[in-house]
Amino acid sequence: MTALWTKLRRDLWHARGQAVAIGVVVACAVATSVGSVATARALARSRDLYYAQSGMPDVFADAARVPAAVAGRLAAVPGVADLDTRAVGDARLSWRGGTARVRLISTAPDGGRLGRLDLRSGRLPGAGEAVISEGFASATGLASGARVSLTVNGRMEPVTVSGVVLSPEHVYAIPPGGLFPDDRAFGLVWMRREAVEDALDLEGAFDQVALRLARGASVPDVVEQVDRVLRPFGGLGAFGRDRLLSNRFLSDEIRQLDNMATVLPSIFLGVAVFLVAVALSRIVAAQRMQIGTLKALGYGDLAIGVHYAGFAAAVALAGAAVGVALGHAFGLYMSRMYTAFYRFPVLDYRADPRAMASAAGLALAASLAGAAGAVRRAVRLRPAEAMRPPAPGRYRPTLFERLGAGVLLSLPARMSLRGLARRPVRSLLGAVGIATAVAVLVTGSFFTDAMDFMIRLAFEEALRADATVTFTHVVARSAGDELARIPGVLAVEPTRDLAAILRNGQRSERVALAGTVPAATLSGVVGEDGRRITVPPSGLVISSRLAKLLRVRPGDAVQVEILEGRRAVGELAISATVNDVLGLGATASLATLRRLGREGDVITGAQLAVDPAARDAVARALDARPGVAGVSWRAETVRSFRGTIARTLLAFAAMLVGFAVAIAGGVVYSAVRTSFAERSRELATLRVIGFTRAEAWRVLVGEVALQLAVALPLGALLGYGLSALSSHAFESDLFRIPVVIARSTWLFGLGVTAAAALATSLVARRWIRRIELADALRSGE
Amino acid sequence: MSADPRGVVFEARGLEKVYRMGEVDVAALRGVDLDLYEGELVVVLGPSGSGKSTLLNVLGGLDAPTAGSVRWRDHDLSRADDALLTRYRRDHVGFVFQFYNLVPSLTATENVALAGEIARAPMTAEEALALVGLSERRDHFPSQLSGGEQQRVAIARAVVKRPDVLLCDEPTGALDVATGRLVLKVLADVNRDLGTTAVLITHNAAIAGIADRVLYVHDGRIARVESHDRRASPEELAW
Questions:
Q1: Sign of CA dihedral A11, A17, A23, A25
Q2: Among A68, A615, A700, A766, which is least packed, fewest CB within 10 Å?
Q3: Which residues pair with A535 in a beta bridge?
Q4: CA distance A775 to chain B (A)
Q5: Model confidence over A504-536: pLDDT tens digits?
Q6: A415:B103 CB<8 A
Q7: Residue of B nearest to A409 (CA)
């Protein structure tokens, strides 16, 4: 059998162009799968390890003010194994060079039992000291020894930073009401219990409790009991770890990576199946005499079958080997990117031999499936029949010609058209193959479009304010109006943000409820179509996704429970739903919230339009006001967003685009090469009867152009579908990637494919030059 | 070479052709001197591997000699580049092959038109098909034609351009005797009626009778030339 192996090696070398094209597609499929699985596993493993080591709580609850003695009643709740009470509140941190909104959290001298802090540098805080979160430290440049001032409830205190830490409850640290980490504008600060209690006026009390459950305890049961205990103390509703925002983002990310590990490789392998089928069919057709000879020499069907299947297997395994290496590197890179905002003490990235083996196995299976038809034909060929040249294929005029339009066609055009019409399925599959290249290209760059669109929607259409001011607590509306007197502030619009639970029957969702003035121009609700929704004087505007979760429609009423102050409960009508892209938003007018909460004309923040020339002066003036908890500047938020989430998504998109270009190249090369191979005898005949090289080349290019004419529109259609599918795979309750495809993306997808076709067509000039006229005509092969 | 009242169409001197097959050189032509005259029908006879196909390829501008010269009228084919050789084949040469080499996706008429469309002063495809007696099969595709019919379409495709020379490589090699006779008759008729110089290579000695001259090729050389005063009619042939 060594002779057959030698032949296989030579066949592979001879068909190296197509073998490489198929190998590239297989490598892309395997790399995407291996990389995504490894990244997802790395995140999951790092999370699990960190949660286990740090005593990550299972249930959390916030309340207004709970006397310390109540902790004993919580500990007695059946199923509770351990608990940790805390004092938590909003504050502002100022240092030379900036201010930021921070979440001030109490901690035990040893870092706490549950959700223990992991010290990255320095030491845990003593009296007059604080530790800060790592992301915040690296974004602001603050480090151990830095002297800062902390403003809580209008009182400013000097504090020394003693260390930098990580917290398992804040792996993904986002400001309250926000969706993206903004480490420059928001941070986490831990201080000794006494200091925090003192600052927040919580002496002898706590306002947050974290609980760890005994093995086998039911989260919903404990949540219900804890709620019962905390209700008299302004309990805001206990929730399980799965609802903890940090954990939820992390779990969504892992789920998205798992989706990606399935969807994209499947599509890529589909392309590979097709390429193998086409390439091997052609080889078997071209080698029919050889197959006949081998059989005449006594080689059995099994040997012949294995020989041709070996071609597919060799290409798949070589592609898989490259893909495994590439995927490993890609996973490592992606995991490192993630650590910029998912902060773990240790990122446990490992090569995953099982994922590698299964991706390679799948690639091999796909390749063999593609080879099956051609292998079967080779096995079934009878020696006597194989030794004769094949009879000319059966052709007939196409429908187009039978309708009388044939006179419009040149003879080469008729050749191409009839060739395509003779094997419609195969021709269609050929077009689908090229169309897939377009689709993958479009989808790869669609993510960039979606990101730009989301940034534009969120930071240009919805939020037009230059600065968003958050007050330390609920203040009279006049406090907002006062901001207008700061020189450089051009306009002020008050806002009222509060946490609320919306209920419809059994369904309920905890949301951040935003209150605005009805004619707000600096902030507002904007739909996916860019349309601005006017907030009605009464009633609620909610996101479509929230409406879906609550099963409500415009006109329906929902029960609203405000999770602060008097814990007012009332009914509000849904006046509109908006197809927005971020989170589960709900918006009402200030007047509506005032009526609902039975409170005065109060606000929690303001949106400002600021004269760009006066930006620094305005920033200083705002920082000087003790009632201001924080100011986020739109330009900085956009920069921060682009620097973190957008960067990761774009890194992924860049990789996808790289793969897409490789696949487009492979598919198109393979298509042109196949056309050439199938036409080579005809092309030789044309050359012999006097066609110039250029004329023969134009016959080939005409056929490629015909395939492209079908494939490009089809590809655009597939591209839209694949983008929608990807958007769906990435969708979560927290955000949604809209299916927005820019014109430049269409041009890119279609252009790269057309360019690949053009480049291959130019290479085909060399193939035509190399046709040995005398040889091509002598035998029937 | 004997003088002939007719003009010389091809003149080959010291023609050599060496193929490099892997590590070894194989000499296919080892110094061929040859004159072919206007309007004559020449049969080149020789066993497999004698170099007759190579000779035909060089005459047809499909291959260049390693040494020596070959002239077609006042054109030096041995020094022509691809563009000139293409021009030469397009305007002056009609090829007929053992395996017909028709384009399967084109009808008989269209296959013939393929050559006619790029020629300088062609006859119509219909005329060419009438010449080979296939007018009634004009709209058939190759798969709908017998071997002999396919070969006649190939001859029509070769003559549609009114070539100066018709080069036929084993034109009856894939056909049965009766069909072979018919094809030879068509070739002989074209040669006689259009005055086209025809070179027909074969290993089948029985065909030699229809020629004006027979060139016996052996081991890359012309071993012997035989002239016939009277050409046999293809119907008289038997093999």
A1: negative
A2: A766
A3: none
A4: 10
A5: 998 988 888 999 988 888 888 887 777 788 888
A6: yes
A7: B110
Q: What is the DSSP letter of A735?
A: B
Question: At residue B137, what is the residue type?
Answer: R
Which one of B60, B87, B143 has the shortest CB-CB distance to A394?
Answer: B143
CB-based contact A690 B115, cutoff 8 Å:
yes
Task: Kindly provide the residue ranges of all beta strands, DSSP E only, lying in A547-704, ordered along the sequence.
Answer: 557-562, 569-578, 586-589, 602-610, 628-633
* Count of A-B CB contacts under 8 Å: 94
Contact across the interface for B89 and A685, Cβ inside 8 Å: no
d(CA A420, nearest CA chain B) in Å = 10
Separation CA A391–CA A7 (nearest Å): 26
* E-strand stretches of B83-212: 93-96, 165-169, 197-202
A427 touches chain B (CB under 8 A): no
The candidate with the shortest Cα–Cα distance to A542, out of A592, A502, A506, A596, is A502
- DSSP-assigned letters across all residues of A549-572: HHT--TT-EEEEEESSTT--EEEE
CB A647, CB A191: distance < 8 Å:
no
A692 in contact with chain B, both atoms CB, cutoff 8 A = yes
Q: What SS3 class is residue B121?
A: coil
Q: Which residue has the tokens 């006397």?
A: A67
| Cut 0.80: pTM above it | no
- Partners of B150 on chain A (C-beta within 8 Å) are 392
**CA separation for the pair A610, A631 (Å, rounded):** 12
Helix (H, G, I), strand (E, B) or coil at A699: helix
Report, in angstroms and rounded to the nearest whole number, the Rg of chain A calculated over CA atoms.
Answer: 33
**Can you tell me which residue has the tokens 């956009």?**
A638
Q: For residue B155, what is the nearest residue in chain A, using CA coordinates?
A: A689
ipTM of the complex: 0.83
Chain A interface disruption, residue of B19, B103, B160, most A CBs within 10 A: B103
Note the pLDDT tens digit of each residue in B9-43: 999 999 999 988 777 888 899 999 999 999 999 99
Q: Which residues contact A423 (CB under 8 A, 6 or more apart)?
A: none
With beta carbons less than 8 A apart as the criterion, state whether A50 and A167 touch.
no
Q: For residue B222, give the amino acid letter.
A: I
